[in-house]
Amino acid sequence: MAVQPTSLLQQLLDSGSSGCLAVQSQGVTWSFYFQAGHLFFATHSIDPFDRLERHLRRLSHTIPALNREVRTQARTQFEALGGPTASYEAICWLNAEGFLEPSQAGTLLQNLALEVLESFLLITTGNHELINAPSLLILASLPLSELITRAQTTLNHWRAFQDKVTSPFQRPYLFTQTRGHQRLTLEQQQRLGSLLRGYSVRHLAVLTNQNELKLVKSLYPFIQDGTIFLREPQAPFDLLPRLDHQSQAIDPVIPPEDISEGSDRSLVSLDAPHKQFKIVCIDDSPTMLQELSRFLSDQTFTVTTLNDSVKALMEVMRIQPDLILLDVGMPNIDGYKFCRVIRNHVQLKTTPIIMVTGNTGLIDRAKAKLVGATDYMTKPFTQSELLKMVFQYLS
């Protein structure tokens, strides 16, 4: 059936209702939680913890307490709960533990709601219902009308680029065979080449700590002339509505005045992360090691590949990596034993260890957690999926 997103939300505001407005459209569910007509949380079903990680990472620039270890702990503790409110419960935990002040939690919830609204306002059909919501601690009352106006404005700004950019989750890559390179210095080519390796525009903006629209404005001329090409969003982000989707909730395109400052071809802000992260890949398969190295080797990462688990123990302690990708099924010392030994080393207790395996059983996952693994990846995986994992655990 036809859906008018702003009207649905306004009805909840006017009625003073409590509960969760759940709206389903094209395989995505948007959930808006109200208490007596006041919005206090908004989310959608597409990877809510990726969304939370991105916003926490932005806040970490001004709130040092939100470091990688704290963010990882919040994700590990609450993502397994599942359900639409798991990320909200993680925010409540961060507030209760003192990592977020109440005002900071309110700001975080507003920013999350704004991103959710930007996609919600683009839908035109779907099904909706008001359902009972679980009892939740209310951290803040969100200014819904103001957030809707801000979301509409942001969408209009995005639409200024919609002939080429149809989703903030599209993935820009540097196209090496183009005349556009003649307008790029060697330094700019190297900088772009090291950054544009599978991250979406939205993730790239977080990595470089930039406004998304300013980032797109900087890249847009190079997208137009073919120097940069855009790949489609990686699943599941491809399920979200496209920016070129016409919606009654969006006003005619307006000039993006607040992003007009600076040169269209200013790439100086696209700095790669200052730290060159050290990643160790341990696998008895040379083919797998070559693939991991190909996916990760650039100016941001220093990749060391090791195929002997016995020798790898000494190398890992010598290198002191920032992240370890560890195969489970290795001879002599398997991944579980290796992980347990590493965790007993005082300088490697908090190093992210990602178990990589072809096994998908829950017993393997439980065992990996028991020996201290940070996360788990199942073969085969794409470069984008690997970079997403790296994004989560390297700051």
UniProtKB/TrEMBL annotation:
The modification 4-aspartylphosphate is found at residue 327. One of its GO terms (biological process) is phosphorelay signal transduction system. The keyword Phosphoprotein applies. The lineage of its organism: Bacteria, Bacillati, Cyanobacteriota, Cyanophyceae, Acaryochloridales. SUPFAM superfamilies: CheY-like. The keyword Nucleotidyltransferase does not apply. It comes from the Bacteria. Keywords: Phosphoprotein. It comes from Pseudocalidococcus azoricus BACA0444. This is Response regulator.
